[in-house]
Specification:
Pfam families: ClpS. This protein has 98 residues and is an alpha+beta fold. The chain is built from 4 helices and 3 strands, in the order αβααβαβ. Helices cover 47% and strands 19% of the residues.
């Protein structure tokens, strides 16, 4: 493994070590279309969340306008966001605030 010298660009290995994976969040947003029971069912079906947890998340979406539904690597959150879109829910991803 090569080490960079002062003034040279770091190697890929050094970049991976120097930049740990930053977690990302999946945010589901409230919308005027989907029923609360449907949102709860999506959270239970897709994520496998227990009814109580799925209901808490749905209520946060409903009352607060959004909820953080999952956290993990960016690529995984992108897959989850696309799945939420496929279910007809509004979802975005964002980097976890440092």
């Amino acid at each position: 493994m090569g080490m960079s010298t002062p003034g040279s660009a770091p190697t890929i290995d050094e970049q991976l070590v120097a930049a740990p994976l930053v977690p990302w969040q999946l945010v589901v947003w409230d919308d005027p279309v989907n029923l609360m029971s449907y949102v709860t069912r999506v959270f239970r079906t897709y994520f496998g969340y227990p009814e109580e947890h799925a209901t808490r998340l749905m209520l946060a979406v409903h009352h607060d306008g959004h909820a953080i539904v999952a956290t993990g690597p960016r690529e995984t959150m992108e897959v989850h966001a696309q799945a939420m879109h496929d279910y007809g829910l509004l979802a975005t991803i964002r980097e976890v605030p440092q």
